[in-house]
Design a protein that fits this description.
Order of helices and strands: HEEEEEEEEEEEEEEEEE
Strand order of the largest sheet: 1-2-3-5-6-9-10-11-13-14-15-17
Number of helices: 1
CATH topology: Lipocalin
CATH superfamily: Autotransporter beta-domain
CATH class: Mainly Beta
Structural class: mainly beta
Distance between the termini: 34 Å
Helix content: under 10%
Strand content: over 45%
Radius of gyration: 19 Å
Oligomer: single chain
Number of domains: 1
CATH architecture: Beta Barrel
Length: about 300
């Protein structure tokens, strides 16, 4: 498994100059542990991210706080396939010196994904358990991408939607020996151009999580800790690379997954360890994600 992550890391290490998160939008979803992988479920997910941007040419800075409230659900097609959907509402706040604050609430881009469960021996009586999934999907242009605030069009990265049909791919592998386990993730979003000819750079995220699975009567308590690497490729308009876009970040993720009968609560924090956004003029802050799921 360590060799897999070395290869992923090297694959993503291309030269980049900056980043398009002066505003910052929600990008990729991250997997939580699911003991009921072959069940239908629905629920709510809440996420927030924040960025502080320093503009050297005007000697000023801006603070962006983006929240997402998502309706999520998975429908089981068979023991090998399921479909999941995410419908987000975004709340975007930007505060900048000598400017009127920006406060927006709008529908984001809906995501649909098909998951193929290639390997799953959780139901077998074995000490060593494996679970392997691949996923393909699409992001639909349901969110607005040309919003105007204070008589000017918002930055592309501040828009709730991208205006484009984008494609999603994912890989997830879990290995567990008795109570100890590890989960590896690789998720990507492959972007196309919107009607304005603007194309966001592709997004990639790879992570490794270690966890301890403890059963207490009707409860499963799973504390976890891991690392996450994100890469944002540079945007294009129409074919020229945009200078102030692209970047990469390393995060230390830690949290807990709680399961009680047919209910799940997932909590995750992301602490930035190393980042290069906008030639170090933009700094990402602490991330938070939680979701409540009901299994059917």
């Amino acid at each position: 498994m360590p060799y897999l992550f070395i290869l992923i890391f090297l694959f993503f290490q291309k030269e980049i100059n900056a980043c398009d998160v002066c505003g910052g939008a929600m990008s990729l979803n991250y997997n939580s542990l699911m003991p009921n992988i072959n069940s239908h479920y629905f629920g709510l997910r809440y996420r927030n991210v924040n960025f502080t941007s320093y503009h050297n040419n005007t000697n000023s800075k801006a603070f962006d706080f983006i929240q997402s409230i998502e309706g999520v659900g998975t429908f089981k097609l068979s023991n090998k396939f399921n479909v999941n959907a995410s419908i987000p509402i975004l709340l975007i706040n930007r505060e900048e010196a000598d400017k009127t604050p920006t406060n927006l609430m709008a529908l984001g881009d809906v995501q649909l994904m098909v998951n193929a469960i290639v390997l799953n021996n959780e139901d077998e009586i074995r000490k060593l358990k494996h679970q392997l999934r691949f996923a393909l999907g699409v992001k639909l242009p349901t969110g607005p991408y040309q919003l105007v605030d204070n008589f000017s069009t918002l930055y592309a990265a501040m828009q709730p939607g991208t205006g484009s049909f984008d494609f999603l791919s994912g890989f997830n592998y879990i290995i567990r020996y008795q109570n100890f386990g590890a989960m590896a993730d690789l998720n990507s979003r492959w972007n196309t151009s919107n009607p304005n000819g603007y194309q966001f750079g592709n997004r990639h995220a790879s992570g490794l999580k270690l966890f301890y699975w403890q059963t207490l009567k009707n409860w499963n308590v799973i504390p976890n800790i891991g690392i996450l690497f994100e890469k944002l490729e540079r945007d294009q308009h129409p074919t020229d690379l945009i200078q102030q876009t692209g970047g990469h970040m390393f995060f230390n993720n830690f949290g807990v997954d709680l399961f009680y009968k047919k209910t799940a609560l997932n909590i995750l924090f992301g602490l930035p360890l190393l980042q290069n956004l906008n030639q170090n003029q933009t700094q990402a802050g602490l991330r938070f994600q939680t979701q409540l799921l009901i299994f059917i």
